[in-house]
Amino acid sequence: MQIEKARHVNCEINCTFAPVMRILVTIICYFAVLLLIARLTGKGKRSGSDAAFFRGENRSPWYIVSFGMIGASISGVTFVSVPGMVRSMDMTYMQTVFGFFFGYLVVAHVLLPLYYRLNLTSIYSYLGTRIGPRTYRTGSFFFLLSRMLGTAAKMYLVCLILHTYVFGNMGIPFWMIAAGSVALVWIYTHKSGIKTIVWTDTLQTFCLIAALICIIYITIQKLDLGGNSIIQLISNNPHSRIFIFDDWMSRQNFFKQFLSGIFIVIVMTGLDQDMMQKNLSCKNLREAQKNMYCYGFSFIPLNLLFLCLGILLLTLAGQMNLILPEVNDDILPMFATQGYLGQTVLVLFTIGIIAAAFSNSDSALTAMTTSVCVDLLDTNKDIEEVARQRRGRVHIILSVILIFFICLVEALNSKSVIDAIYIIASYTYGPLLGMFAFGLFTHRTTRDRWVPFIAVASPLICYALDCFAMQRYGYKFGYELLMLNGILTFAGMYALSSNEIINKEYGNIKR
Predict the structure, then answer these.
(1) Where are the transmembrane segments (predicted)?
(2) Of all helices (H) and strands (E), which one includes residue 273?
């Protein structure tokens, strides 16, 4: 009897240990490839220069940049959230995705020509040239704030998964996992920056898409469906609804979602140093625009696959009589981690989460380093060796701050807090939208010293309006809050402006 009990315990240990070891080996191999890419791209006399770190020496092939940016735009949160949102809002997220594409066209034909004409390293230096130094630093500060909060929350997700399913069983604390994860990002980005990230993001995007397709394939096998049956199942599912035109109060109304999608891309790509830094590493404007067309269009089929996976998982749950978790974001992790789709999916899910999170965090860390060095410390005026040393210190300091914020999110241990972080981050893009819109679409000058106060007041007013609308009318603002935030910033700057003519070279596009 004791022998049988011992065998049973030993079997349980082996069953638990085997998948952990598979995941651990996968992670080690994955990062070994990333470090190899970093070593190869870091070769060359100027690999450690500012030209390589900040702009990749303007030698990045546009098609590589385009493919890699897909992974940088899709975080680990997106990887688990989009399939789960089908249960509560059907496939109406596609309305926002369609808006994304037109937003990318605006970025390609309005913002990119400006950035290339002025030969910018940090896009926020335009605000200093066009409006003034305080506006310049305000724009940079809002970017740094939103990026640090958003990146910490996204990295928290992957660190939590690694702690729960791999390292937690070995007695390794969460803070060590956070420190190790950020350290790995620092190792393969500290020397060549964007020059390396363009290529590592390509690998990570490939891993993300491959993991998604494989998970969909295994789910289809579990459902035992053929090609035509899959299409019919998805199209006939009540959650397959995409368009809502009739309900104006709904947050999923087509016009709200579509217009919001356009403005989300304009501010979170076109006015974001992280995303624009990759575009500015292309050889010229024409190639950067090609990158934007291809990258923008690719989001349509990719997000459609995520949503289709959500319908397939809901159908499979019905067939298996499973009780789904209350939180939509927990649906895919439940299937992946509890063995309903097999151990292979657990490995694929881990790869997808890691690829999505790290392709987002490595470029964010590099972009924040660029912003601090160029916008706040003005290292462009230093000699090359001094600039490189200062850049290295900034890169390390920002990495430590990122570790602190990841651990802070873990200590708070509340999903509502994580949601709040994303809401706060989305608020910070509104002032950027208003500042750039004022510079681009007016000939007027404004009182630079008042712009920081306007930029802080606009999100606060938006928050108050959101609370008032909810209490008085039961209406909750969605993505349209971003546009309102930008309008308030623009209005405040316009109210304090004068008719003094500015030089058109500064990017003013009004005729």
Answers:
(1) 20-41, 62-86, 98-118, 139-166, 172-189, 201-220, 292-320, 340-358, 394-414, 420-441, 453-471, 477-496
(2) helix 273-279
Rounded to 5 degrees, what angle do the CA atoms 206, 426, 262 make? 70
Least confident range of 25-39, 292-306, 416-430? 416-430
Backbone angles phi, psi at 45, to 5 degrees: -65, -35
Q: What is the DSSP letter of 250?
A: S
Give tens-digit pLDDT for 177-208: 899 888 888 887 766 556 677 777 788 788 88
Q: What is the dihedral of CA 168, 172, 176, 177, to 10 degrees?
A: -30
pLDDT at 305: 93
DSSP letters spanning 172-215: --HHHHHHHHHHHHHHHHTTTTHHHHHHHHHHHHHHHHHHHHHH
Q: Is the pLDDT confidence value at 490 over 90?
A: yes
Q: Which CATH code fits 1-413? A: 1.20.1730.10
Residue 445 carries which DSSP code?
E
pLDDT attached to residue 460? 92
Predicted TM-score of the model (pTM) = 0.80
Q: Residue 471: is it exposed, middle or buried by C-beta count within 10 angstroms (0-12/13-18/19+)?
A: exposed
SS3 224: coil
Question: For residue 261, what are its two tokens?
Answer: 């999608």
Pairwise CA distance, residues 270 & 268, whole Å:
6
- Residue 350 in contact with residue 368, Cβ under 8 Å? no
CA angle, 42 then 48 then 51, to 5°: 110
**Type of residue at 336:** A
**DSSP states along 421-435:** HHHHHHHHHHHHHHH
> Which of 109, 132, 100, 110 lies closest to 435, judged by CA?
132
CA distance 491 to 469: 21
C-beta of residue 80 within 8 angstroms of C-beta of residue 325: no
Place of tokens 């709040």: 420
Cα pseudo-dihedral 428, 432, 437, 438, rounded to 10: 110
pLDDT classification of 58: cutoffs 50, 70, 90: low
Residue that is written with structure tokens 């030089």 in the block: 503
Handedness of CA 159, 161, 167, 171 (dihedral sign): positive
Alpha carbon distance 86, 317 (integer Å): 14
Which residues, at least 6 apart from 494, have a Cβ–Cβ distance to it below 8 Å? 438, 442, 444, 446
DSSP, collapsed to helix, strand or coil, labels residue 383 as coil
**Domain layout of the chain by residue ranges:** 1-413
* Percentage of residues in the chain having pLDDT higher than 70: 83
Give the pLDDT mean for 249-268. Answer: 84
> What pLDDT, in 10s, does the model give residues 61-77?
888 888 878 877 776 66
Distance CA 108, CA 297 (A): 13
